[in-house]
Each structure stands twice: as C-alpha cells, then as structure tokens.
Amino acid sequence: MDRNWDISTFLNEKTRFYQIKDGFRFGTDTFLLADFVRVKGKEKLIDLGTGCGVIPILLLLKYPDLTAVGLDVLKENVLLAEKNAEINEVSGRFKAVHLNVKDVKSAFRSGEFDIVVSNPPFIEVGRGNVSKGNHRAVARQEILATLEDFIKAASYLLKNRGRFYLLLPTARFVDGICLCRRYALEPKKLRFIYPEKDEEANLFLLECIKGGGKGISVLPPLIVYENAKKREYTEEVKKKYSCFL
Q: pLDDT for 11-32, tens place per residue?
C-alpha cells in the first residue's frame, strides 16, 4: 500500500475505501449524492471527478446489473479507485479512467452512458482561499476544469433522455441551473440540503434529463443533522446510509 494512503471502513464495516491522507476526504454529501441517483436495471454510469471511486462503487454494490466508469484527472485517484473497486469486489463491473473531462471526446462515444454523476470542483479561480495540497485543490477549485467543462462533458456522454445527477454548494445554484439548460440537460428534480433545521441550505442535489421538457419538481428539504456539534444524523439521513447496507 502507498504510504500516502490510509483505509477507512463504512456502513458497519461492509465497505472499505483507501483515501489520500492529506487529500480531499469524502463525507456525508458523497453518500447523499449516491442515494439521489436512480438506476433502472442494466445501465451504464460514469462518475466525472470520481476521486477514490466511492459513488460508483456504492452504486455497483447496490445495483448488481449496473456497470460504471470512474473518470479523474489525477492518476493517483485512478489508482485509488481501482484498488477500492477490487477490495469491495466490484472490479469486474468497474473501470477507472485517467482523463480530464475536457477531453472526453477522445475516449468515449457521444451518448455512451445512461447516467452521469458529478460532484465537481466548485470554487472559481480567484475566489476563496486556495486549498492546501494539490489533490484537495483540484477537487475543490476550477484549476484544471470548470463547472461548465463538467456539464458540457455530461451532455456529450449522455444518451437522449439519459439522467445527470449533480451536487453543488448553493453559491453555484444559478450557474448550475443555467449551464445545465445551456447544454440540453433540463432540470427535473431539485432538493436543497440543510446542515440543521434552522440553518440556511448549503448544498443542493439536481437531477436533469437530457432533452427533457420543461418542468421541475422541488423536493422537501433534506436536513442532515439533528445536532451538528454531536454529529447526530436525522432519521432520514440514517435511512439513506442504511440503504447501502
């Protein structure tokens, strides 16, 4: 094992994931995005900016007929994703690809996928503090690709009527909605995520349909914590974790 990696167990030790010790660490929002994805039988999914492969691996464990690709611009993340697919016993249905989302046309056909998922970098260059460490910076900031690059890639990769699932901070809400429509990904389901009941939303989940008609459903608020300081999840979030058990 690489000395810069460590391993964590999740979901009552039923899943294990290697991560970079000083890199971007996935959290609750990763599980919430995975839970938001709808899979219909024998479909093909790609995760843009997959990191260590958590989202596609969770979905492969949940849906036995699914096949998935995890794409990432960092070679070390691709190695991690491959290792994580192996230790979670889904490597036969998973492929990790080292590629910038700006270059998807060089590796994939248009309309090759039924589902695209992404939790992309969200901090615009020149805004906010620069993350420490290259891995964390690339995961959070539009250094190697912009939000528009991710959404444009999603549109190219999806077949007509395919589904795109996106997680972003609310600060990028208008950008996300406008860019999705620009690239023929029509917003269909929207859910805002709140840390606690009396706080403002800080994230949102969005489902888009490529070539879909106008009309969006705004789902009830998703509240993460009963008590954030004690890290006590709400019953709904507990259930979302348990659906992967």
A: 656 788 888 776 666 788 999 9
